[in-house]
Design brief:
About 40% of the residues lie in helices and about 15% in strands. The chain has about 270 residues and is of the alpha/beta class. It has one domain: Glycoside hydrolase/deacetylase (TIM Barrel).
Length: about 270
């Protein structure tokens, strides 16, 4: 069976159950404007798909704010502080781990949040995206004190509220094969992972309330991944079962407008 047909069939199954499914898209490692970022945001704009752009505060360049200002479909979230590995040799890369004083790392996160708030204003949502999708549990407990209302990593979440006042929504389909020269994982693999999470939500074996998240890294995408992303946006936007959510809606900063839920039901 064609990979796209499998996705259509799964979305049809959502409609047959009387429900619609939610998706969202997070793009990591933003620090400046570039041809790749412009390509991502133009594809998203063409298909009216909101993008959560995870920006690295310590590496921020003024051109990123200029780019975000051009595209209303973009909201900025915080990608750690410097995307710097503090783990010892032989350990998995981690910026927010138990490898240095907690107070120092939290101070950096607050500094980064304040900079993003200053540069992006209302276009910034206080959601933390840990570099390499890794964060020590002790950090999570202190996120409310550091001014964060959300956390996003990778894989099905174990808790909707990992700390008081902090909601967690993850991504579930990474388009980059990091251990295979950063190539595209391929259409079949991407659809398998996407359909797998959608089906698990539909049948109750995964948290149905967690929107299915697509993870991109605009600086690492090759042509095949770009073509897949455009096709995914086009096909899901054309199907009555799929609703793409912006990051503020995902994390409860705003409610889903009734028009967004019903616009494609006609």
């Amino acid at each position: 069976m064609n990979a796209w047909t499998r996705l259509d069939d799964e979305l049809d199954a959502w409609l047959a159950s009387g429900r619609r499914t939610s998706l969202w898209c997070r793009d990591d490692d933003a620090c400046r404007d570039s041809a790749a970022l412009q390509r991502l945001l133009r594809i998203a704009l063409t298909h009216d798909v909101p993008i959560a752009l995870a920006a690295i505060p310590a590496a921020l360049k003024p051109s990123l704010a200029d780019a975000v200002a051009q595209f209303a479909i973009t909201t900025v979230v915080q990608h750690g502080y410097a995307h710097r590995n503090h783990a010892p040799p032989g350990a998995r890369n981690c910026e927010l781990g138990a490898h240095r004083p907690l107070v120092d790392a939290l101070a950096e996160l607050v500094e980064g949040r304040l900079r993003l708030e200053r540069d992006f204003g209302a276009r910034f949502a206080a959601v933390l995206v840990p570099p390499w999708n890794r964060i020590d549990a002790e950090f999570v407990a202190h996120l409310p004190d550091a001014g964060f209302i959300g956390l996003s990593t990778f894989g099905p979440r174990s808790s909707a509220y990992p700390a008081s006042g902090v909601r967690q929504f993850n991504t579930h389909v990474d388009l980059v094969a990091w251990r295979r020269d950063r190539t595209f994982i391929g259409t079949d693999a991407a659809i398998d992972r996407l359909v797998g999470h959608l089906q698990a939500r539909r049948d109750g074996s995964a948290d149905a309330a967690e929107p299915t998240g697509i993870l991109t890294h605009h600086l690492a995408l090759h042509d095949a991944a770009w073509h897949f992303l455009a096709e995914l946006f086009a096909r899901t936007r054309a199907h009555n079962a799929a609703v793409w959510l912006d990051v503020n809606t995902v994390f409860g900063v705003a409610t889903v407008p009734a028009s967004a839920i019903s616009a494609r039901s006609a």
